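Researcher: I need the complex structure. Ligand is flavin-adenine dinucleotide. Inputs:
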Amino acid sequence: MAEVLVLAEHSGETVKKVTCELLTLARRFGEPAVAWAGPGAEAGRERLAEYGAAKVYVADGEEFDDYVVAPKAELLAGLVAAASPVAVLVASSPEGREAAARLAVKTGSGLVTDAVDVGPDLIAEQSVFGGAIVVNSKVTSGTPIIAVRPNAVTPEPAAEPGAAELGPAGIEVSDAAKIARITERVVQEVAERPELTEASIVVSGGRGVGNAENFALIEKLADSLGAAVGASRAATDAGWYPHQFQVGQTGKTVSPQLYLAVGISGAIQHRAGMQTSKTIMVINKDPEAPIFELADFGVVGDLFSVVPQLIEGIQQRSGG
Ligand SMILES: Cc1cc2nc3c(=O)[nH]c(=O)nc-3n(C[C@H](O)[C@H](O)[C@H](O)COP(=O)(O)OP(=O)(O)OC[C@H]3O[C@@H](n4cnc5c(N)ncnc54)[C@H](O)[C@@H]3O)c2cc1C
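Model: Output:
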C-alpha cells in the first residue's frame, strides 16, 4: 500500500493531538508513515501505533533539535525522494506551514495550507472568509503537500494498531539548513489548566465580561469544569486576557467537545475559531446576539448572575 507521510508534532515525548488527527486523515489514502524530527520517538511510539502509523522515520540527531525548520524540510524532502509517498500531511501550525512551504519549493510540488478536511482523491477543503466560503483544491503537480488546521478533524484510533516500526530516517542535513540555530529555549509557565487547542472543554469570555478582574469569574467557571480559558479578540485587545488565549480567525482554532461562549456576540471572525466545536453553549444578555445561531444550548441573561449559579450547580453535582 502507498505511504502517506505525516510530519509529527510532538513535545519531545508527548505526541500532540494534531499528529493523531493527521494520522486519522492519512489512513484514508494509504499507509501512514511518520517523520519524527528530534528526540522522543520511542516514547511516542505507542500513540503513533494506536492511530495506525506503520513506520516511523526517526531523525534524532542534534541538527533536528538545535536548529529551526530548515532541517525538517530537508528531512521531508529526503523521505519524499526515497519513499515516494502519495501525499505529505503536516499541521497547519507556524512551523508546519514553513516546513511545508520549503518542501514544496524543494520538490516542485503543490501545497494547500489551512485545510479543514481532505476528501477522496486528495481534494483538500479550506474554510475561508471566516467560514463563509468552502474552497476545494487539488494539487496537480509533484507530491501533494497538505497543511491541515489543528482541531479540524476528529482523531480516531485505527481499528488495528499500526506496527509503528522505528527506523533511522538516514537523511543528511546540509550546512545551508543549519544557518539559524536555536540558542535558548524558555519554557513558558504552564497553567494548571489544559492547553487551549487540546482541551475537551473551553470557556471563553468576551467584551461582556467588562474588565480584566472579571475574567476571574470565567477562570472559576473553567476550573469547575476542568476546562481551558479562551477569549474573544475584543477581550484580548482590551488587555483583559493575554493574546495567546484569543480564539478566532486571527487567534487559535479550537474544536472541543463543549465550548461555552460567555458575553461574546459571535462575530464571523470569532466563529471561525470555534464553530466546529461539538456542543456550543452561550450565555448572553442579548437574545438577538448572532452567537445564538450556533448554540446548542443558550441562556439569555446577565453573565454576572448566570455564571455564579452555574458554578454553584456544577460544584453541587461534583460534590465540591
Ligand atoms: C481581520 C479581523 C480579524 C479578527 N479576528 C478575530 C479573532 O480571531 N477572534 C475574535 O474573537 N474576534 C476577531 N475579530 C474581531 C471581531 O470582529 C469582533 O469585534 C469580536 O469578536 C467581538 O468580540 P466580543 O464578541 O467579545 O464583543 P462584542 O461584539 O462587543 O460582544 C459582546 C457581547 O457581550 C454581551 N454582553 C454584554 N454584557 C453582558 C452581560 N453582562 N452578560 C451577558 N452578556 C453580555 C453583549 O450582548 C454582546 O453580544 C477580528 C476582526 C477583524 C476585522
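Model: Summary of the prediction. The pocket of flavin-adenine dinucleotide is lined by residues 206-208, 232-235, 246-251, 263-265, 267, 269-270, 273, 283-286, 289, 302-304 (CB under 6 Å).
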